[in-house]
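call fold target=MaoC family dehydratase
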Amino acid sequence: MSTPTITPKAAEVAVGDELPPLRVQVSRADLVRYAGASLDFNPIHWNERFAREVGLPNVIAHGMLTMALGGRLVSDWAGDAGAIVEYGVRFTRPVVVPDDENGASVELTGQVAEKRDDGIVRINITAKFEGRTVLGKAIALVRLR
């Protein structure tokens, strides 16, 4: 059973505060489930031969799945996914998902970069795979109470 998250109050948040880090193992089974939910059945996400034929090192995670992990980092911290009022990223590098028991480890961190008078805070998100950034300009705006 998980501990309920308490939404941070705007008065308690300061520029420079770090969000609790999040590490997610992405497996091939996760890619299948995401493909079914998103209806994105592009073979680069499940067919090794095809992925290699188009120049990829192997099957890769859906970019939007990787983006969603960044959203999870922020919504876990905020305690409410509805608190995210804006979120955008640039996809800079793929997450290669091997066909083994471990899959790919994506490490996510975030930091409060700006605090506005209206209760909105800007969170800069970093997502890394094998020590390299996979999301660029990952920024979420969050409305705190």
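return ok
The mean pLDDT is 94. The first strand starts at residue 22 and ends at 26.
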